[in-house]
Design brief:
Elements lengths: L18 E5 L4 H12 L3 E8 L5 H14 L3 E5 L1 H17 L6 H21 L3 E3 L4 E6 L2 E6 L16 H4 L2 E2 L7 H11 L20 H6 L9 E3 L5 E4 L22 E6 L5 E5 L4 E12 L10 E5 L7 E8 L3 E11 L6 E6 L2 E8 L1
Parallel strand pairs: 1-2, 1-4, 2-3, 4-7, 8-11
Antiparallel strand pairs: 5-6, 8-9, 10-11, 12-15, 12-17, 13-14, 13-16, 14-15, 16-17
Helix pairs in contact: 1-6, 3-4
Length: about 350
Amino acid sequence: MISDELAGSLTPFEQNPDKILVALSGGVDSSVCVRILQDQGFAVEGLVISFSPAHAGAVAAAQLAAAELGIPLTVEHCEPLFEQEVVTPFCQAYANGQTPNPCVMCNPGVKFDILAKVAKQKGIPYIASGHYARMEEKDGIFYVARAASLARDQSYMLYRLPQTILSRLCLPVGEFEKPLIREMANAYGLSSANSPDSQEICFIPDGDYATFIENRGITGKQGHFIGPDGENLGAHKGVLHYTVGQRRGIGLALGKPIFVKAILPSGDIQLGWAGQEFASTITLQNTVTTTGQPLVAGAEYQIKIRSRAELVPCRTEYFGDDECRISFPKPQRAPAPGQSAVLYQDDCVMGGGVIV
């Protein structure tokens, strides 16, 4: 979460009302974010964060982008913090049979915390990033809202940010479709105009998370496949190789489609027949809300149960200090423990938690 040092202390600095600090990765989205803000009259500075050894290329790309954009750039190293807050919990979660989302962990605990700290040190009142989302204010409360480009929407990833961040956050890229962002980059003459989109797990460039975890000496729980009818189907490779809802790569042929129904505390993996993977309720823990106040039990919202899922109607059956129960009028496919479920109203993020 946001550090105690920042909580309640990020008041705007009147001496620099038009300055803004942008999280610059060197990619097309954050680079165009800078140009949009410059066109709006902001004096922009950049910040690139080195999260891990895998980010050396991003730091170099950000340095090139800053030179092209004509802005000062600060390079901040946070490798130990990132290891503690993101990488280690990520590995532990997979080893325990969960499916974590590292961006959800990183944004409040590392990325935006550091962005806000550096802005405060520099006397800069506003911060920005190239996320595809928008900001809305209602009655003095600031909300993350879905992007104009729903196909690119990243509001889900920002649901844990508190008001101390949201009240000074700008998300200009969220007003545009991705093809237009690339057109703007070309028009501005930015070398990032045709750069590839960033990978899903930034600290695992090849995407092979299981090998990454095993190379750190973590094997995960061992056990057996338990068939749809309760039969023992033999040993599996270790729970970190599987996720709830998985259909491919199981390595078993039972005559008709199967999927991973549950990863049990014992290390066994319960399989189910296709069509049995839908749930009518989920329970969330480690819940947060945008306002800081509990959501209304019995109220109707919309929800995403994974980052790329569609918004679907839901009802909060219970919302307590740290736990929430959600029901769906239409059962949803394979909610996975470890993933976040994010609640919306009128396209605005209201809160969410981690599926258990």
